[in-house]
Amino acid sequence: MLVWAFLLPSLAVFFLYRVLPLLWNVALSFQQFSLFGGTRWSGFDHYVEMWQDDVFWTSLWNTLIFLASAPIGILLALAVSLMVNADIRGRNIYRTIVFLSYPLMTVAVGIIWRWMYDEKVGLFNFLLRKLGLIDTPLAFLQSFELVLPSVLLANIWQIIGFYMIVLLAGLQNIPQNLYEAASIDGASRWQQFVRITLPMLRPALFLAFVIGIMTSITSFDLVYVMTQGGPSHSSELLVTYIYKAAFELSKLDYAAALTVVQFLLLVTLTWIGNRLSGGNAGAVERN
Amino acid sequence: MRRPQRYHRAPMHRYPRWPLHVMLVAISFAMLLPFYWVLKTSLTGENIFVYPPSILPHHPQPFYYVDVWYFIPFARFLLNSVVVSVLAIVANVVFNAMAAYSLTKNFAGRGWTITLLLSCMMIPFQTTIVPAYLITGKLGLLNSYLGLALPTFSTIVCIFVYKASFDAVPNSLVDAARIDGLSEFRILLQIMLPLSTSAIATNVILAFIWSWNNFLWPLIVVRDQAMQTLPLGLSRFLSDHENTTGALYAFCIMVLAPGIALFLMAQKEFIRGLTSGATKG
Fold first, then answer.
1. Over residues A11-20, mean pLDDT
2. What CATH number is given to the structural domain containing B165?
3. How many angstroms away from the CA of B19 is the closest CA of chain A?
């Protein structure tokens, strides 16, 4: 009994803010909801509405593009983590610098990047013009084509340190004698990387991938601050559209239906990631 | 499984190290550039209006840092953020420890509980906002400190951080305490927790960072300006003034500073929290 009393506060929080919302959300997506009573079932109305909603398709497509930040970021982080795992002086300083952007308040990060992208006085336009790469300044965040990659870059800048930490932990778990044995057998550096490092790193890589998918699919703050989903929804993600539908348009039920789609997308992708990793990603010791 | 070994120093350098340093310095430069740029502008107000921007700061002065306090009720936002963070930290340190301690026991339903926790980990908070808003409304907690902090009162990752630490405490010690007649609560309080200071530190840091940076939930729950936390104030400042003043960037520095300071002080505990569960080790 005492055991359950100890578990109660935590379980209550998770029930109230994880389990119950998940269930309620599904129910809500099949309802015509009103804050003032009179909620009734409406079948698949919201899903039909969604099917015909161009903004939904745009935001779904943008979310899928935005997910690219996970593989790109992980690939970059893999290179960085191999470098800072090497036996070099000052590697702890390098690690700290790369990681420093991760714990930052994303709202502030968005404001800083928003202004580095500025058309008139932004740092990027200044550097690109100095280097002679462009003649006329680019309006990164006002352009239909450039806005999503621009936000993506800021997202990668912030999260790359996290990937690095996960991969570094994976690298440090590879037994050193595997490399010793391999070099006695005459394996080249590249062969060691492909035959030892990558396979041994697989759980860490896919853990990073699964968490990366989760964080980029829910990346609200950055988009909201940098672009508000604009210009005209060209950087709208599902998560920002859900917020707008629910709290700006007061269509809580429709937002719930959008959330169901978002959640199914998330579950599918993490399931794939988990299968690819051999079913170990995110595993906490269960003994 | 073979015990993992840490990467030890290689016996000798077979390759020159300078190309590695060159690359790492370049990466560090790219990572630090936004910090430098915002710090410079917060001190000078340069390159907001004028093109081309100057690379080095001219006449730095703290004017904009003072200005922030006049633009918005900064003290009030700070207070709100601190209250919400303190609530979250205290709740996490206590509730997570209790939950983790019970998970070190054998009891019917333990396996199910762990499965439930691991499944909840896969439900990001952002996918619960609509019902979470309705639930908080039904509890009458909209626009209140408790309502702001409640969803972050317990964190699954942090429960497992505690659990790993408690598992490392020798059983003989716990048994001895039990024979001496200590209640379970006092075993947790007087034996487990004092031996788990770094797990406590991890809990404090993660709870603080997550609560301090939280934006979406306050955006939904807060109605009055008087209840706004710093991230909300910052976003509001942006929409009111756009980037017409260096005060915006001074504001950014002021909200980023506590997180950076805490992170630099307790990097190890922070990283442990993030990688626990990531790798078994």
1. 94
2. 1.10.3720.10
3. 10
